[in-house]
Amino acid sequence: MEQEKKIKKIAVLGAPVEMIEVTGIKGEKFIINSDKILIVHQQADTIITMMNGLVYRVQETKDSIIEKMIDFRRKIVIV
Fold it and tell me: How far apart are CA 49 and CA 56, in angstroms?
């Protein structure tokens, strides 16, 4: 329910609807545009490489990132 509120808030503010929340290695939360993800690679940490070349190390697993992307898209269709 809380996640749905976040999605509606993002949609109302006019932000891109492809956004998902991830957690950096040091625990900081941030939002990335899931449509701009080029590669998700998992070693000790999960590495997300964006289409613009930016690289993020996050705590979530590769499978968790994929699940967030799928869940977000399902909720967008519902909203």
Answer: 7
